Structure formats: structure tokens, C-alpha cells
From TrEMBL:
One of its GO terms (cellular component) is cytosol. Its main location: cytoplasm. Gene3D superfamilies: Nucleoid-associated protein YbaB-like domain. Binds to DNA and alters its conformation. May be involved in regulation of gene expression, nucleoid organization and DNA protection. Homodimer. This is Nucleoid-associated protein FOC72_08545. It comes from Streptococcus sanguinis.
């Protein structure tokens, strides 16, 4: 059985590794795209929007609903990538907890 001091050291080491992983994710850029890449959204791993680019073909003042839907698709695509990367990177730490 691990003693308390050993468990605390292991927990502190794990916390530093997790913080490093979170910083790496935050520094990573994820790109989400709508159908036919008409809207492209770039987000950081901490879910901050960097940019949203629109293909001129999709910008129709008479059809803002389609533009809105495609923007949502692009953002959701990028967010899904972030969630997947976060699960892969941070989920690995769950099995390393000393308790």
C-alpha cells in the first residue's frame, strides 16, 4: 500500500503533466469546415474562435439562414475535434490517478 507522502508526490507530478497537456491543447489550432468547405472556422484547443472565413459563393443576403447553418456546422466540426483531442490527451491521465 502506498504511503500518503508517495501518493501526494505522484498526484503533484500528475497535476503538472495535466497542466502541460492543457497548455498544449490550448496552443493547438483546430479547423472545422461546413459542407463543401464553404465556411471554415478556426478555434484554439481552449475553444476560443480564431477566425471564421466565408467562401463568397455562400454569402447571399437573401439567404442568411444557410450561412448561419453552415457557420454552425463549421464551429461544431471544430469543437468535436477539440473534444476528441482533449479526451485522447487528458483521458490518459484518469488511469494514472494514485487513488
Amino acid at each position: 500500500m502506498m504511503n500518503m507522502q508517495s501518493m501526494m508526490k505522484q498526484a503533484q507530478k500528475l497535476q503538472k503533466q495535466m497542466e502541460k497537456g492543457q497548455a498544449e491543447l490550448a496552443a493547438t489550432e483546430f479547423t472545422g469546415k461546413s459542407a463543401q468547405d464553404l465556411v471554415v472556422a478556426k478555434l484554439t484547443g481552449d475553444k476560443k474562435v480564431v477566425s471564421i472565413d466565408f467562401n463568397p459563393a455562400v454569402v447571399d443576403p437573401e439567404d442568411l439562414e444557410t450561412l448561419s447553418e453552415m457557420t454552425g456546422q463549421a464551429l461544431n466540426h471544430a469543437l468535436a475535434q477539440i473534444d476528441d483531442a482533449t479526451q485522447k490527451k487528458m483521458g490518459a491521465f484518469a488511469g494514472k490517478l494514485p487513488f
